[in-house]
Specification:
Helix Hairpins; 3-stranded antiparallel beta sheet; about 10% strand; globular
């Protein structure tokens, strides 16, 4: 059974970049739905194993991938945002960014353009790929498609319309630009440090 993360800041603390109303709907309703549906799916899989009836296995495993990935990514997303207190990549992460993207500005431009270009419902992620020993930026359709096996999400931006439409309407670029003001690099730094321990 998975649990929702506790929101690590007050609901209104991301304003004006991310509205209280949007965050409340996103965290309380939509994220809760992904967590609940993941747990329901896990329960159904348990029942299938106990009964030996796997007639619905294709649907159940598809649901687990979709809802489970949605729950995980939402948790990462809420954690890697924070009140607009200046933070930045630490020395180790900045060195890796410079190595893999040429410069921080180039990384930021690529991440911004990649986020805006996400098709339909999806995400944009900065990930560490252990097999490549480098950082990559990946677009993710839905919650689970177009990933690289084994990659570790470091910085996650939700590009589903529910994450910005109330405040930014169809102005996706404005939403992405606002996001940079509330990135909590301290969390991203810790995620990167953990990848180096693996």
């Amino acid at each position: 059974m998975i649990k929702k993360i506790d929101l690590p800041y007050p609901m209104d603390s991301l304003e004006p970049y991310y509205s209280k109303e949007t965050l409340a709907i996103h965290y309380d309703t939509l994220y809760t739905g992904y967590v609940d549906n993941t747990n329901k799916t896990e329960e159904k899989l348990k029942q299938a194993r106990e009964s030996g009836n796997f007639d619905s296995i294709k649907c159940l495993e598809k649901d687990l991938s979709f809802f489970g990935s949605g729950a995980i990514l939402h948790g990462l997303f809420f954690e890697n945002m924070g009140p607009a207190i200046p933070t930045s990549p630490n020395v180790e992460l900045m060195q890796q960014i410079n190595k893999d993207f040429g410069s921080y500005d180039t990384f930021k431009t690529q991440f911004t353009k990649s986020s805006i270009a996400v098709e339909a419902s999806g995400w944009n992620l900065l990930v560490w790929v252990p097999e490549f020993q480098k950082l990559e930026i990946l677009q993710c359709e839905k919650h689970q498609n177009l990933t690289l096996w084994g990659c570790v999400p470091l910085l996650v931006l939700d590009m589903w319309e529910h994450s910005y439409f109330l405040q930014y309407k169809t102005k996706r670029p404005e939403y992405v630009e606002a996001f940079w003001n509330i990135v909590n690099w301290n969390v991203v730094n810790k995620r990167f440090e953990k990848t180096l321990e693996i």
